[in-house]
From TrEMBL:
GO molecular function, one term: 3-dehydroquinate synthase activity
Organism, scientific name: Spirulina subsalsa FACHB-351
Domain of life: Bacteria
Keyword NAD tagged: yes
Main enzyme class: lyase
Subcellular location: Cytoplasm
Family as reported in the entry's similarity comment: Belongs to the sugar phosphate cyclases superfamily. Dehydroquinate synthase family.
Sorted UniProt keywords: Amino-acid biosynthesis, Aromatic amino acid biosynthesis, Cobalt, Cytoplasm, Lyase, Metal-binding, NAD, Nucleotide-binding, Zinc
Name this protein carries in UniProt: 3-dehydroquinate synthase
Residues involved in Zn(2+) binding: 186, 251, 268
Gene symbol of the encoding locus: aroB
C-alpha cells in the first residue's frame, strides 16, 4: 500500500512518496534525482537514535558520502543560532552547491533544514523525511521554511521547495501520543478547508488519539488525502499570493497563543486546534456557517484529545496585539480564514476587534 503524489510547480515540481516500511529505500529513491554525492543529515538526538542508522546505511549503499548534524528537540531551538551551527557543519564537510541536506525529523527539523538549504551557497538541494504526523501532512510539503523570532513565529524564512518528500508511516510508532494528536489538528484542518469527505471519514473512526488507534488503511487515507489537499493548493499558489492562505486556517490565533506561551507550554498542533475552534466561533457570530457545522468541527477536535479552550491566564488584549505581528497582516488588518461550510472557507480582514475579543474571552478556561 503506497501512494505517489505530484506537487506540480512551474519550476520546482517534486513527488511525495508514501510507503510503509520504506526508510531503507531512501537512497534508492534519491539516486534518480541527479543530486551530488555529499549528503548532510539534519536530525534531533532521539529521532536519529531510532532511524539514523537505517537512513545513513541506505544513503551510503546508494553511493552517497554521509555526515550528520543533530539539534536538540523543541520549538525553542528553531532559531538563527541553530541555523548558524548547521552552516558550521556544512563548511566543515565542504558541502557544495550539488550537495543535499536531508531533514530527518518533525516540523522544526524540516523548517530549519529547508531554510539552511535555501541560504547555504545561495541554495543547495534538500530532501524531507518527516517523522511526525504534523510534518508528514503539513510542514514537509509546500516549501515554507524558516525560523522563529522572539516576537513572532516564522517571521524569518524563505519559500524553498524540496527535491523529494519521503514518508514512511511506520515511523509514527515511536511518536509520543501528544505529538500524534498535534498532527491530527492539521488533518482536521484539511477536512474543514478542502475535503469534506476526509472530515466525514475521521468522524466515523472510533479513536484518533494515537498511532495504535488507526488501522493501516485509514492512516494511509489520512496521509494521502492530506498531502493531496496541500499539493492541490500549493500547485495553484506556490508563494501564498492568494489561495494558499487558506492553509493558515486555525493558525492566526494559534500562532499568537504559541508565541505568548513561549513555544513550550502549548505545542503547534494544540494551538492550531484552539485556533480552529476560535475561527469557527468567529464564523458563527458572523453568520458564515451554522451551529451544527461548528459543533461537528469542535466535536472532532475534542475526539482527538486536542485542547479546545484558550488558557485563562492569557490576556485577551495581549492576544489581539500579538495578532498584529502575524505575517498575514496587510495594511494593519489581520487576515482570518473562516469556514463557510465543511470543506470550504473564505479569507477576510473584516473581523471587528470587539467580536474577536468577545470570542477570545468566551473560549478562556
Amino acid at each position: 500500500m503506497s501512494s505517489l503524489i505530484a506537487v506540480n510547480l512551474p519550476d520546482n515540481s517534486y513527488n511525495i512518496a508514501i510507503a510503509p516500511d520504506s526508510l531503507s529505500q531512501l537512497g534508492e529513491q534519491m539516486r534518480p534525482l541527479g543530486l551530488g554525492h555529499k549528503v548532510l543529515v539534519i536530525s534531533n538526538p532521539e529521532i536519529f537514535h531510532h532511524y539514523g542508522a537505517i537512513i545513513v546505511q541506505s544513503l551510503e549503499q546508494a553511493g552517497y558520502t554521509v555526515s550528520s548534524h543533530l539539534i536538540p528537540a523543541g520549538e525553542s531551538y528553531k532559531t538563527l543560532d541553530s541555523i548558524a551551527r548547521i552552516y558550521d557543519t556544512a563548511l566543515q564537510h565542504r558541502l557544495e552547491r550539488s550537495s543535499t541536506l536531508v531533514a530527518l525529523g518533525g516540523g522544526v527539523i524540516g523548517d530549519l533544514t529547508g531554510f539552511a538549504a535555501a541560504t547555504w551557497l545561495r541554495g543547495i538541494n534538500f530532501v524531507q523525511v518527516p517523522t511526525s504526523l504534523l510534518a508528514m501532512v503539513d510542514a514537509s510539503v509546500g516549501g515554507k521554511t524558516g525560523v522563529n523570532h522572539p516576537q513572532g513565529k516564522n517571521l524569518i524564512g524563505a519559500f524553498y521547495q524540496p527535491k523529494l518528500v519521503f514518508i514512511d508511516p511506520q515511523v509514527l510508532r515511536t511518536l509520543p501520543p501528544r505529538e500524534f494528536r498535534a498532527g491530527m489538528a492539521e488533518v482536521i484542518k484539511y477536512g474543514v478547508i478542502w475535503d469534506e469527505d476526509l472530515f466525514t471519514q475521521l468522524e466515523k473512526a472510533d479513536r484518533l488519539q494515537d498511532f495504535s488507534d488507526l488501522e493501516a488503511e485509514l492512516l494511509q487515507v489520512i496521509l494521502t488525502r492530506s498531502c493531496q489537499a496541500k499539493a492541490d493548493v500549493v500547485s495553484q499558489d506556490e508563494r501564498e499570493s492568494g489561495l494558499r492562505a487558506i492553509l493558515n486556517y486555525g493558525h492566526t490565533i494559534g500562532h499568537a497563543i504559541e508565541s505568548l506561551t513561549g513555544y513550550s507550554r502549548i505545542n503547534h498542533g494544540e494551538a492550531v486546534g484552539i485556533g480552529m475552534v476560535a475561527a469557527g466561533a468567529i464564523a458563527l457570530k458572523m453568520q458564515l456557517w451554522t451551529e451544527p457545522e461548528a459543533s461537528r468541527q469542535n466535536a472532532l477536535i475534542s475526539k482527538t484529545g486536542l485542547l479546545t479552550h484558550i488558557p485563562e491566564d492569557l490576556d485577551t488584549g495581549a492576544i489581539v496585539e500579538s495578532l498584529q505581528m502575524d505575517k498575514k497582516v496587510k495594511s494593519g488588518k489581520v487576515r482570518f480564514i473562516l469556514p463557510t461550510q465543511l470543506g470550504k472557507v473564505k479569507i477576510t480582514d473584516e473581523v471587528p476587534n470587539d467580536l474577536l475579543g468577545q470570542v477570545i474571552d468566551e473560549l478562556k478556561q
